[in-house]
Amino acid sequence: QRTKMIAARVMRGPVGRAVIGAAVPLPGGWARLASGLAEIQPATQALAQGVMAGDRRSLSRAITLIESSREEHRRQAELLLDAVLERRRSDDSQSAAAKARATARAAAEAAAAAASAKGSTGAEAMGAAAEAAVAAEAVLDSDLARGPATRTEEESAASAPAAAGADGGAASELPSPPAGPGGEFHGGWPSTLRVGIAGPPGAGKSTLIEALGQQLCAWGHRVAVLAIDPSSTRTGGSILGDRTRMTELSRNRRAFVRPSPTRGALGGVAAHTNDVVLLCEAAGFDIVLVETVGLGQSEVAVDATVDCLALVLPPAGGDELQGVKKGIMECADIVAVNKADGDMARQARLAALEYKRALTLIPPKHPMTGWRGEATTVSALQPDTVATLWSVVTRFR
What we know:
Blueprint lengths: L1 H9 L3 H7 L7 H11 L3 H11 L3 H12 L3 H47 L4 H25 L6 H11 L21 E2 L2 E2 L2 E6 L6 H14 L4 E7 L17 H5 L3 E7 L11 H10 L4 E5 L16 E6 L6 H5 L3 H4 L2 E4 L7 H15 L14 E4 L5 H14 L1
Helix pairs in contact: 1-2, 4-5, 4-6, 5-6, 5-11, 6-7, 7-8, 9-15
């Protein structure tokens, strides 16, 4: 019985709630824990709805709930994430069905065009197209009702002719959905790009994020910035002052800036950063920038949190040997030598050349694509260099 409760405490989603709700006699303390886990409070449900509606105030309060150390708050935070994930699965399923219907219609039009090209009458072509569309949508409706996992091989084979051209050729490619602020879409949610901004203290990460975030918002993106701040080993408190360097970005309605304490977590990120990123995705932010605390060479936990890791370094940061050292350098997808302006511009260019040579000696992080990492210079005071840095990120993507 206790093993079931521990498993249910760890698990998330419908399976975990089913185990908790099972009619199993539990001791008093375990029973209270089970009842607290099984019910989501109205306030938590309202937070989930506000987050999914894109409300920044609800998102901020939801992050506070997730970062809370109180036991009852942790239970509600898990249920909040369950609600968000359940909504995401539902939206993805509905959007996939809508895309498939669009594919069926495109295939029907292709079948009609092919029939016309072969000399069929207009009525025959329209009849063939209508039959193909009806057959394809019938299969899609069945998939949406039962879920993709229950689809049989016979149904897949039956739907193949409807999805192909009348001459038996390959099926039409899936038409692209209309691109919103985030560009490409996956399912019903924006295809979020997670970018880690790491580097030693004083490298200018916050100022660079301010400039980059402003440009991204001007280009139509919705940007969430998660600034991780170190906690005191003596008092446990954090200044959470990175937002003071992002005053203009904080005022932008297309942006969301949230500082968070590490609370003793190592690796450059906080303990709940992954959950916070998930909430930002649910709120409709298509770009999430994760600013780490000032890192050393061996703090690489951020690499598992983001899609692209940009290592921001100051000029004159060392020689070629520093570039080939293990740790954060071999995890970096992009090395950006910051503060490349004024008297430091020449030193920044020389440092970037050193890092470029060093990156050629590091085994590729992504063997399938061959991406070895790139080194570039950037300055928050020069918008063209910030745009160049983002172009490297998009090429990596």
